[in-house]
Amino acid sequence: MLSESNSNELPVCRASDLDQGEDHQQWLIRSIWGRTSVGILGGSPKCCKTFLGLELAVSVASATPCLQRFEVEVPGQVLAYLAEDALPELRERV
Fold first, then answer.
1. How far apart are the C-alpha atoms of 42 and 51, rounded to whole Å?
2. Does residue 1 form part of some domain?
C-alpha cells in the first residue's frame, strides 16, 4: 500500500507490502543469470571477464549451454557492448 502524498513526493511503501511475485526463480541461464537480472561482470584485470561475457551472450543467442554446463532457459537476441577491444580481436575471441 502506497502512502498518500502530494505530487512532489516519492511514493513510499513497507517492504512487507511489496508483491512477492512467483515462488520460484526464473532463469535466463540456469543457476547463473536470472531472467530479469541486471548486473555487471567485474574483477581483476585479465581474469576472463570478457570471455565470460561473450560466453553468456553466445549461449543465449545460440541456445547452447553456457560453459557447456548451464542450460539456457530463455534463448533470444543479444546486444553486447564491448568498448575496450578492437573489432578484429573480438571476432577472434568469438
1. 12
2. no
